[in-house]
Design goal:
With 229 residues, this protein is α/β, with parallel strands linked by helices. It has one domain (4-226): Alanine racemase (TIM Barrel), CATH 3.20.20.10. It is built from nine helices and eight strands. It has an eight-stranded parallel sheet with strand order 7-6-5-4-3-2-1-8. Strand 1, helix 2 and strand 2 form a beta-alpha-beta unit. Helix 6 packs parallel to helix 7 (170-188).
């Protein structure tokens, strides 16, 4: 079994190859190492190998890791990528760089409220259900556009883009990635500051090459770095 450092090197090479194929610069794609369920020691190993951005999905687990002696003094850039309930926002709002999984207007409103209370400016992504599966979280594409005006008015939070979890079938996933990119372009036409809408968080271990070809700016990779959970 390869080391975490070797796995990271392989992923970086694959990112570069996918970018070249798509006619993109590799630095336009950020790798978020999905470290949920993995111990602090594994995160430290990845950090020591040059990985700075990590994604966590469970609030309590994230809070424990962020205070772990192995990690608390490391300049890690944490992303919260899981489903976030409104009542959990206050626990993480001052500890993460970007929140990926806002899937309701009411959750965005709570995020705005908490950001005001803490005198913070918070960046977030909207999670979009591009597959239409009832088992998945996320706004439907039409809902994103119908809620856009209300979302843009919320103080102390800035919408930076969109996030999705695609279907497991590669061809379906590619269409969903493309649709997310097109939705972001539509959102820019109604945004007061379209230049702030820069991020597409899409693609995981099994499909990040396709996501990059369709415009991903962030890919969320876990098992290919840390092994299966």
């Amino acid at each position: 079994m390869q080391s975490i450092a070797a796995n990271l090197e392989d992923i970086r090479k694959e990112i570069k190859a996918a970018c070249i194929k798509a006619g993109r610069q590799p630095e336009t794609v950020r790798l978020i190492a999905v470290s949920k369920t993995k111990p602090a020691a594994h995160i430290k190993e990845a950090f020591d190998a040059g990985q700075v951005e990590f994604g966590e999905s469970y609030v309590q687990e994230f809070l424990e890791k962020s205070k772990d002696p192995l990690l608390e003094k490391s300049p890690i850039s944490w992303h919260f990528i899981g489903h976030l309930q409104s009542n959990k926002i206050r626990s993480i709002i001052d500890k993460v760089r970007l929140i990926h999984g806002i899937d309701k207007l009411s959750t965005a409103e709570e995020l705005s409220k908490r950001a005001q209370q803490h005198n913070l400016q918070i960046d977030y992504l909207l999670e979009v259900n591009t597959s239409g599966e009832s088992s998945k979280y996320g706004m439907l594409p039409d809902e994103v556009l119908s809620r856009a005006e209300s979302l843009f008015k919320l103080p102390n939070i800035t919408l930076r883009g969109l996030m999705t979890i695609a279907s497991p079938e590669s061809e379906k996933a590619r269409v969903e990635f493309r649709n997310l990119r097109l939705l972001l372009e539509s959102l820019k036409t109604v945004a007061p500051d379209p230049e702030k809408l820069t991020e597409l968080s899409m693609g995981m271990s099994g499909d990040f090459q396709e996501a990059i070809e369709e415009g991903a700016t962030m890919i969320r990779v876990g098992s290919s770095i840390f092994g299966w959970r």
